[in-house]
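Holo prediction — iron/sulfur cluster.
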Amino acid sequence: MKELNPELIAWSEKRGSPQFAAAPIRVIIIGMGKLSKEFLQSLFLSGKSKFQNLQASIKSGLWCNRLSQFLNLVNYTLNALQHPDMLNYGPFYLHMTPAEVHPLVPQSLLELPSNGSGSPLNLPSQRVNLSSFRFLLDQLPSILCIEFSGKAHDPFEHPDLLQMVDYAFHYNGAESLIHTDGLRLDEFTDAILKSKLRTLVINLIAHRPSSYGLLSGQPFALFVTILENVKVLLHRRRSCRSKLSVELRMTIDLHNYHEIPAMIYFAKDLGVNALHLDNYLPRDITMKSDRSLYRHQPDMVKYFREIEQVYSSESGFKVYLPKLLEPDMSNYRHCRDAYNTVSVDSEFNVSACSQHQLLYGSLGKIWDEDFFNNPMYQWLRAVFSSNTDPAFAPEVPLACQVCPRNTPMLGSTHKG
Ligand code: SF4
């Protein structure tokens, strides 16, 4: 287990409760009332879609899981309105990095079997395997959506990735989304289209090779490879009439934001379903960069509002505009991860932050009773409740002060 985050410890000591025994439940309750309109809308839509799934599931006999998920949503809605003393619903979103290995496993040994056999360090496992994934989902009956991503390792490096997707769909009724760098797509095109995967987001980074090289620091030949893989996937998707949503990601900085219309045109012309435009962030997640986009930069908000107006009328295609940062976000408390998401690592440590999974340390395992109310969750909820009593208000962690998930929406989603 990683060391606890010093900010959490400082908060705990300030409250005079090193055991976290008297957790600020009152603070959590106030935070519940602050859930954003967008989040509530997404929950409603998700609930509606899950109700339709529930009807189908009753017919197929798998109604028990679906029913408990639906009741969890109802429970959440009722509790959000009534401001209860405790969060008595489970998380809706599961985030995991399936191809990442235990931090102690040497990088040169990554080719070892995913079940961990032969581990030189006698670690219990190097990656989550299919059996342990099933165990994981058994602990999380309320999960509606699973997001697979990677940091050092693309999710498709995991040999059982698509089997996990299918398992989650069939036995938990959960939809899956995979973030990939797209380099290995050609090996999995048919398997992806046969699987129950709902959304595939490919990080193309740019809309032309030269920009790809500049933004990623990688040879621009990789851009050509990824683009070719995407084109083949889209062609095969058309042939088999798959409903898989294929989406692109690109990085926006101060030097290329004026090219956004060209990027949108490029993505539409390619035939993908959506384009995600990510604000540029430096590698060190606690640092700021002059290349990132900020609200106070001249005409920045006006520019994006104009883009929003032009492209909101496009049909069948979504553009997710970059989230603009502020130079000082030390009082920003907009992230909602601690209210709806659980992230796990390969050892099933749980984290309330989906971006930097165990940045804040871990206080528990997925099998712990009521892990969703553990001290880590309580601390982050206290951080992100804008109505927290100032006497107990923890400081916003440095990483959250430069995280786009902690910014207010600037028309971030545009539906056609
Ligand atoms: S703001 Fe970002 S870094 Fe902070 S908890 Fe939310 S997702 Fe994690």
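READOUT: The domain at 6-13+22-104+113-118+127-414 is CATH 3.20.20 (TIM Barrel).
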